[in-house]
Specification:
Blueprint lengths: L3 H33 L6 H9 L6 H11 L8 H7 L5 H4 L1 E7 L2 E4 L9 H15 L5 E6 L15 E3 L2 E2 L5 E3 L3 H5 L9 H4 L8 E9 L14 H11 L4 E7 L7 H7 L9 H4 L2 E6 L8 H7 L4 E5 L3 E2 L13 E3 L6 H10 L1 H18 L2 H17 L32 H5 L9 H11 L6
Parallel strand pairs: 4-6, 7-8, 7-9, 9-10, 10-12
Antiparallel strand pairs: 1-2, 1-3, 5-11
Length: 442
C-alpha cells in the first residue's frame, strides 16, 4: 500500500510527463505552422505532397522491385563499408550521403568535378523539408552510369543509368530530371509543340557528340552514332545526321569526320522540331533530357536498341511511345518508309509519347520515384544506419543521439485519424508518436 507521499510523487511524475508531452506537441505545432505547413510550403512541395494521394504508375513499382531484388535479404552496413571507400570514390565519382534524424550529411565531394552532387543534395533536402526521410546511409555515383564496377560488387549503388541486369545498380532519376527538365524554357511542352505535325519534314534528324567510347582513326566508324551519320550519306533524303561536338578521340579523328562531311554546326532544340522523326542514340550512357524532350516534342521518337536503361524506361512501350531500331540502325530506312505509309498511326504514337512525358515524367513524379526508392532502401536496411555513426562524436552539423527531429505534418494524418500518405506505413506514425510521448509517460 502506497503512502500519501508516494501517491503524491506519482501524481507529480504523471503531471510532469504530461507537461513534457504537451510541450513537445506545442513545439512540433510551432514548427508545423511556421516552417512546414501550408503557410510555409512552396508550391512545388505542395504539388509533390498531393501526388502521395494518387496511385503511381505501375511501372514505377515494377522497376524499383526489380532493382532491389538482389537485396531482398537486406542491405547491411557492411555492404556500404565495402563500397565506400574501397571502390575508389575519386575514380568512380562516388559520393556517400547519410540522413540522420532528417539531417543530411555527405562525405568529401571535392572529387565530384561534375557538380551533380549538389543537385542530389538539393533533391534530398527537398524531400526532407517536404515529407521527411528515414535514416539512410547510401552511395550514389555521379557518373553517367555505373562505370567499370567489379562484377562481384555486392552492395547497392544508386545511379542515373546502368546496363540492363546490373545487379548492384539502383536506378534513380537522372541529374537533369531532378534539377527540373522544364527549367530550360526550350524544353517546356508549349515550346515543343510549336510546330504542327503537318508542317514537319518527313525526315530523320540527329545532331550530337562523338561519345560511346574513345574514337580512334581505326575504330571511329564502329560506334552507333557514327553508323547513323554514315547511313545519312547513303540516303540523305531520309536521314540527316551529323556530329556537332568532337570529343573523346585521337587527334586525327576531327579531320577524318570533316573530310567525310559528317560534321555540322550546333542546332537548337527548336530547329529539331521542324522534323517529323527524331532519333535517340545512346552515347556513353543514356541521353537523359534528350529522350525526354523528344517524347514531348510532337515528333516521332526513333529509339536505337541499347543495353543502357534509365529509371522510366520500363514505362515506355514500343509502337506505343516510340518506334524501335536495331542497335546498328541497319533497319532505319525500312522503318522510315513504314512511318511515311502509316502517318496517322505514328502521329498517334507521338501524341501518346507526349502524354507519357507530361504525366509520368512530371517533376512531381520524378521526386515521387526518388522518394519511393529511398523508402524501399530504408525498408531493406538490416540495422539502423545511424547506429554505428552515433557511437562517435557527432560531426559538425550532425545531431546528437538523443535529438529527434521530424516535420510535424508527417504525424498529422495520425492525429487526424486518417492515413493520407500511403507510402509511409501507419506503424511509422505510432513509433514516432511513442518516441515523442512514450507509453506510460502521461
Amino acid at each position: 500500500m502506497s503512502t500519501p507521499s508516494q501517491h503524491h510523487s506519482k501524481e507529480s511524475m504523471s503531471l510532469r510527463n504530461s507537461l513534457i508531452c504537451i510541450t513537445a506537441s506545442l513545439l512540433f505545432l510551432f514548427q508545423f505552422l511556421f516552417s512546414k505547413c501550408a503557410f510555409g510550403l512552396t508550391p512545388e512541395k505542395k504539388s509533390f505532397l498531393a501526388t502521395l494521394h494518387d496511385v503511381p504508375p505501375g511501372w514505377m513499382e515494377q522497376q524499383i522491385q526489380k532493382d532491389f531484388a538482389p537485396f531482398k535479404q537486406g542491405i547491411s552496413q557492411t555492404m556500404i563499408e565495402n563500397i565506400y571507400p574501397p571502390l575508389n570514390p575519386s575514380e568512380r565519382l562516388l559520393i556517400r550521403f547519410k540522413i540522420i534524424n532528417n539531417q543530411l550529411l555527405s562525405f568529401d565531394q571535392s572529387h565530384d568535378w561534375t557538380g551533380r552532387s549538389n543537385i542530389i543534395r538539393n533533391a534530398l533536402n527537398f524531400l526532407i523539408d517536404a515529407v521527411g526521410l528515414p535514416n539512410l546511409d547510401m552511395v550514389i555515383t555521379m557518373h553517367d552510369g555505373i562505370v567499370d564496377f567489379p562484377k562481384e560488387t555486392k552492395g547497392p549503388i544508386l545511379t542515373f543509368a546502368k546496363i540492363k541486369n546490373m545487379q548492384c545498380g539502383i536506378l534513380i532519376p537522372d541529374m537533369e530530371a531532378l534539377d527540373g527538365y522544364d527549367n530550360n524554357s526550350s524544353l517546356r511542352k508549349e515550346a515543343l509543340e510549336s510546330v504542327p505535325w503537318e508542317n514537319k519534314e518527313q525526315k530523320v534528324f540527329w545532331r550530337g557528340s562523338t561519345t560511346g567510347g574513345f574514337f580512334t582513326k581505326d575504330n571511329w566508324s564502329s560506334f552507333p552514332r557514327s553508323k547513323l551519320t554514315l547511313l545519312s550519306l547513303q540516303r540523305p533524303e531520309l536521314v540527316d545526321a551529323k556530329f556537332t561536338n568532337i570529343v573523346q578521340c585521337e587527334p586525327e579523328v576531327p579531320s577524318i569526320l570533316s573530310e567525310r562531311q559528317l560534321v555540322s554546326s550546333h542546332v537548337s532544340v527548336n530547329d529539331h522540331l521542324k522534323y517529323r522523326y527524331l532519333v535517340d542514340v545512346d552515347g556513353n550512357s543514356c541521353t537523359y533530357s534528350r529522350c525526354y524532350w523528344i517524347l514531348l516534342s510532337n515528333s516521332l521518337l526513333f529509339k536505337s536498341g541499347s543495353d543502357h536503361v534509365q529509371w522510366y524506361y520500363k514505362g515506355l512501350r514500343p509502337y506505343q511511345h516510340y518506334v524501335p531500331l536495331e542497335h546498328d540502325m541497319a533497319d532505319i530506312f525500312e522503318k522510315i518508309e513504314w512511318a511515311k505509309k502509316h502517318d496517322e498511326e505514328v502521329k498517334q504514337i507521338a501524341a501518346q509519347a507526349t502524354t507519357f512525358a507530361v504525366h509520368s515524367l512530371s517533376i512531381e513524379n520524378i521526386y515521387l520515384y526518388f522518394y519511393k526508392v529511398l523508402l524501399e532502401y530504408a525498408r531493406l536496411a538490416t540495422e539502423p544506419f545511424c547506429k554505428n555513426i552515433m557511437r562517435n562524436k557527432p560531426e559538425k552539423g550532425e545531431l546528437g543521439p538523443n535529438q529527434f527531429v521530424v516535420p510535424l505534418f508527417t504525424i498529422i494524418p495520425l492525429l487526424q485519424g486518417n492515413h493520407t500518405c500511403p507510402s509511409r506505413p501507419q506503424a511509422f506514425y505510432f513509433k514516432l508518436f511513442n518516441r515523442i510521448c512514450p507509453p506510460g509517460a502521461a
